Amino acid sequence: MADSVILDPVDLEILRLLQNDARTTYRDLAAQVGVAASTCLDRVARLRRSGVILGHVLRLDPARLGRGLQALLSVQVRPHRRELVGPFVERIRALPEARTVFHLTGPDDYLVLVAVRDMTDLQRLVLDEFTSQREVARVETRLIFQQWECGPLLPPGAPQVPASAGGAADSMDNLGGAAL
Fold first, then answer.
1. Using CA atoms, how far apart are residues 115 and 93, in angstroms rounded to an integer?
2. DSSP sequence for 72-127
3. Residue 153: which of 177, 127, 126 has the closest Cα?
4. Which of 40, 46, 103 is nearest to 75 (CA)?
5. What is the mean pLDDT of each run of 10 residues along the chain (180 residues)?
6. Distances from the Cα of 69 to the Cαs of 63, 114, 130, 148, in angstroms?
7. Nearest to 170 by CA among 54, 32, 27
8. pLDDT value at residue 56
9. What is the pTM of this model?
């Protein structure tokens, strides 16, 4: 498990603002948190280096890309040994249909979110990419009827830092949907 990073109120406000609009310019972000744009740039860079800001994400609608059927695959791997875990996860992550892979406790070892064209495509994926693997003991499939995004990690009501005019304008990288 990753170590926590100590964040001051300005860092928390920067994160709260970015998670709600990751396309904010450094000038606007700095003005909202009450620091110079260069200070804001330095803080965002430090948050990236420390792993608080994980990356840049562009979210796509699977249905509009011809993958309107989503499912959760519960996968049991036997034997569940370290030397099988790495290659199994990398093989699954390389599948274009795989959206997210979770390593679990309990009777199932993995939960895999997949997006496919239709039931035929899902059947092909399960049979050709999962159950055909020697270490896969069982796959249980659950179709997703509907999905909702949950609220931000830092709620909108987080403590706000008084705003003041910022410094030079620096354009913010597009961090759309950056996981925190």
1. 13
2. EEEEEESS--HHHHHHHHHHHHTSTTEEEEEE-SSS-SEEEEEEESSHHHHHHIII
3. 177
4. 103
5. 85 92 92 96 95 86 96 95 91 97 96 98 98 95 94 69 40 36
6. 7, 8, 18, 15
7. 27
8. 73
9. 0.74
Distance from C-alpha of 32 to C-alpha of 164, rounded to nearest angstrom: 7
Residue 1: per-residue pLDDT: 57
Q: What is the model's pLDDT at position 178? A: 35
DSSP labels, 132-173: TSTTEEEEEEEE-S-------SS-TTSPPPPP----S--PPP
**What is the length of the chain?**
180
DSSP collapsed to 3 states, 39-56 = HHHHHHHHHHHCCCCCCC
> What value, to the nearest 5°, has the Cα angle with vertex 145 and ends 139 and 149?
100
Cβ density class 117-144: b for 16+ within 10 Å, e for less: beeebbeebbeebbeebebbeebeeeee
Longest dimension (CA), the chain: 62
| Predicted pLDDT at 162 | 46
CA distance 129 to 141: 14
Name which of 173, 179, 165, 176 is nearest 28 in CA terms. 165
Q: What pLDDT does residue 51 have?
A: 94
Nearest to 179 by CA among 53, 7, 60: 53
